[in-house]
Amino acid sequence: MAYPQAEIGVFGGSGFYSLLENPTEVEVETPYGAPSAPLMYGDIGGRSVAFLPRHGTSHQYPPHMINYRANVWAMKQLGVTRIIGPNACGSLQAHVKPGDFVICDQFVDRTSGRKDTFYDGPATTHVSSADPYCPTMRAVALEKCRELGITAHETGTVVVIQGPRFSTRAESRWFASQGWEVINMTQYPESYLARELEMCYCNISLITDYDAGTAGADPVTNDEVVRVFGENNQKVKDLLFAMIPALPGERPCVCATALDGAVF
Does pTM surpass 0.85? Predict the structure, then answer.
C-alpha cells in the first residue's frame, strides 16, 4: 500500500493534533500490529510532518502497553527520517526544575519485558546505542530554546522505568545518586527502535515534577503532572514550530548509517 510521505515525525500527546495545518488521517498497517492510533499527516513551516499520540487518542495505552515497534515502523512507512519525542518527565536533581526542558543525550533502561528490537534473527544485528540521540537535532532544539527564552538543560540522562507505578523514595534516591537528571516511562524502547531503522531521534523532556526521592519533594501525583504539563504545553508547541523548519535537509549524523557494520 502506498502511503503519503512525511519527512519529520512527532510522538506526543493527543493535545498536539492542533500542531498540524489541514491534517489528513492515515491508517497504517505494520508487521507488528496496529500503532497506538491513526497517524495525522500535515504541514509545519513548509515541512511535511506525521504525528502519532504514543498513548492513543484517549490516552488508553499505559507506558508498558504501548506497541513501540508498531509506532516507530508506522513512521518509517510514511518515509519519516527524523522523529521528535516530547514527553512529560520527572526531575531527579534539585537544579532541574518543573517547567524546565532537558534535551537528553543519554538514557538508562530500567524496563522489563518490552519488545525492544526489530532484529529477532536469523541475522544477528547489534546496533550501537552509545550516543542514542541525534546530535544534529539536539543542537537545533537547544538553539531554538535559547531563541524562545525557554530554560533548557543542554545534556541529561533519562532513566526509563517500567511503569505504570511511580518510583519508591529509595529507587528515586538511587537514581539521583548516579547523577541522572530525568525519569520517564516511554523513552525506551521508542528512541532506540528509531536508531535500529536509521532514523534520527531527539528527546525533549518537559519537567513536570520532582521525583519522590528529591530532597524536600512531595510524592508525585498524576494530577500534578497533568497540571504542569498543561501549563507548559504552549512552550512545547512553540519549540516544535521553531525547530521543525530549521532542521537541515542533509543527515551527516551517525543515525543515518547506524546499520553499517551492525550485522554479524
Answer: yes
Cite the active site residues.
209, 211
Band of the pLDDT at 176, cuts 50, 70, 90?
very high
Could you report the per-residue pLDDT of 86-142, keeping only the tens digit for each? 998 999 999 999 999 999 999 999 999 999 999 999 989 999 999 999 999 999 999
Alpha helices in 78-217 (DSSP H): 135-148, 169-177, 187-196
The Cα diameter of the chain in Å comes to 55
Residues 138 and 255 sit within 8 Å (Cβ to Cβ): no
Burial class (CB in 10 A: 0-12, 13-18, 19+), 36: buried
Which domains, ranges and CATH numbers included, belong to the chain? 8-257 (3.40.50.1580)
CA distance 127 to 259: 6
